[in-house]
Design brief:
By secondary structure, the protein is α+β, with helices and mostly antiparallel strands. 18% of the residues lie in helices and 44% in strands. The chain has helices spanning 2-18, 208-233; strands at residues 23-28, 31-36, 41-49, 52-61, 71-80, 89-98, 104-115, 120-127, 148-149, 153-156, 161-167, 175-183, 193-203.
């Protein structure tokens, strides 16, 4: 009894010690900040981040699981409050340790607030080497290369939404996931305002080609088995 209790406590402590936490990274011009979360979420707010008023940037992670979402990034609300305008704002969310075998990933992006006709778009990546912010180095920092990109969503000019898919087999190796929401800057105070929500999910449903290959293999094995049985029945 004591041994079982000790083992349970040890396992619980080990899983807690090695559990991943989501991270945010925000950058606009030369202004940058990195935020490490606690548990399964991370948040940030600032009344003047390089001229942007960030009411709330909130990230949530389901690592190591992929459903009902793997990562969720909500930004509500940001606005340019600098008199001479603001540069593009990049809001990143990333987490590691996803280990569910997936064949397809889907990203979704919806805009809940958009003023003055500006636009926003979303980049997302699967990181095969399981590193935070593993992307392709093309966005506004971080520049960790090696990520497999999903199709870009946007630019969105109205309160609307889009989704994109990536067929990618992760096998059984751990991997990271990363989202980057980009909000275009403008000239003049109160020249842009945004609110948005982004998600990435994964699916373990094989693609038709994979199913066909599996079916062909099963048919071949069945044929060989029947042939053996028939051979054994011969006098």
């Amino acid at each position: 009894m004591k041994t079982a209790l000790w083992l349970a406590v040890t396992l619980a402590m080990s899983s807690t010690a090695f559990a991943s936490v989501p991270k945010l990274y925000l950058v606009t011009g030369s202004t940058k900040t990195a935020v490490t979360g606690a548990g399964d979420h991370v948040l940030y707010n600032n009344s003047n981040f390089g001229g942007w008023k960030v009411d709330l940037a909130f990230g949530a992670s389901k690592s190591p699981e992929l459903t009902p979402y793997a990562l969720n990034l909500t930004v509500t609300t940001i606005a340019c409050s600098k008199s001479n305008g603001c540069k593009d704002l990049h809001v990143w969310l990333s987490d590691v340790g996803f280990d569910e075998w997936a064949f397809r990933f889907q990203s979704g992006y919806s805009v809940t607030t958009l003023t003055h006709g500006k636009s926003t778009y979303l980049n997302s990546w699967v990181g095969p080497t399981d590193e935070y912010f593993e992307s392709d180095g093309s966005g506004g920092a971080p520049t960790v290369s090696g990520g497999i990109p999903l199709p870009k969503l946007g630019p969105l000019h109205t309160t609307s939404g889009e989704t994109s898919n990536l067929n990618y087999n992760t096998a059984d190796e751990p991997y990271s996931l990363t989202l980057e929401a980009v909000f275009l800057g403008c000239a003049g105070r109160n020249c842009a305002g945004y609110g948005s929500n982004a998600q990435i999910t994964g699916s373990a449903i094989p693609e038709p080609g994979t199913v066909t290959l599996l079916g062909s293999t099963l048919v071949a094995l069945s044929f060989l088995l029947r042939k053996r049985v028939a051979a054994r029945r011969l006098p």
